[in-house]
Amino acid sequence: MLIERTKSRQLVNFARARALVDAFARARGLQLAVHSDARALPSLTEQLRMFARARVVVAPHGAGEVHLIAAAPRTCVVEMLSHDAWFNPCYARLAYLLGHDYASVGMRRERPSPKGPGQPKPAAHHRYSANETELAGALRRCETGSQSRSSGGAMTRPRGVT
Is residue 29 classed as helix, strand or coil in its secondary structure? Predict the structure, then answer.
């Protein structure tokens, strides 16, 4: 599953990120589902069903990740974060507590679009570019389970999670 944000923290390279995730899914006999705020969202029950069926969830940091509560343990979670602008470990911690595999992928903040003359939009409304090399690497690690394992003694917690 790939989460698309169109109202805030939008990925300018979403099409390329989608192509990477889609190729990963197809090569493993999986079907890509896109959970997008560009249209009316399904009912909460249906959204939870979607996450319960997902084996991999790729998402820019945001509220849609709260649905991870419905995902099966050891679901591979790849979260895109802007490491230079902000870091909020809430979904890394949630993944850890739920027994998911977790990896973070860097995003670079693009030049902000002005809200009005000389007034930049709040940080959440900036547009970002996901690091495609890191995303491809995180997807490959999904297959081997070599991200930070949320359960099992040999692996460590996601960075910044206590």
Answer: coil
